[in-house]
Amino acid sequence: QVQLVESGGGLVQPGGSLRLSCAASGSISTINAMGWFRQAPGKQRELVAVQPSGGEINYADSVKGRFTLSRDNAKNTASLQMNSLKPEDTAVYYCNADVRTVIAGNRRFWGQGTQVTVSS
User: Fold this and answer.
1) CA–CA gap between residue 42 and residue 105 (Å, rounded)
2) Handedness of CA 55, 56, 59, 63 (dihedral sign)
3) Are 38 and 92 in contact (CB under 8 A)?
């Protein structure tokens, strides 16, 4: 069993910043790709940023230059620094990880989501 727990969401004004954190725990052998998705009301869930193990970080065009993904492989954590936030960034943000589990091979896991609201 693997759990992803997000934190750091909240309400900010346009132009403000938030830092989201994700901690993975459980029967983890190693984490392959790890990153963040988001889903706004009435919209499809979309990729925000993801980093394969040892690979290049992939950012959605809408967040390039504003968001920064970082990973700590030793701690099985990931963070998303979000700067210059816009109202259209409002969404539930989900941590995601492709995990090689101890006994069940590779599986994809999702956090429960954390709400980010950008509004005046």
Assistant:
1) 34
2) positive
3) yes
How many secondary structure helices (H) and strands (E) does the chain include?
0, 11
Other Cβ atoms within 10 Å of 73 Cβ, number: 12
57 Cα distance to chain centroid: 12
Q: 32-66: string of b/e by CB count within 10 Å (b at 16+)?
A: ebbbbbbeeeeeeeeebbbbeeeeeeebeeebeee
Taking only the tens place, the pLDDT of each residue in 45-66 is 999 999 998 899 999 999 999 9
Residue 112 to residue 57: CA distance in whole angstroms: 23
CB 89 within 8 A of CB 64: no
pLDDT, residue 104, reads 86
Tokens (6 digits) for 118: 């950008």
Structure token digits, residue 4 = 């992803």
Residue 7 contacts residue 19 (beta carbons within 8 Å):
no
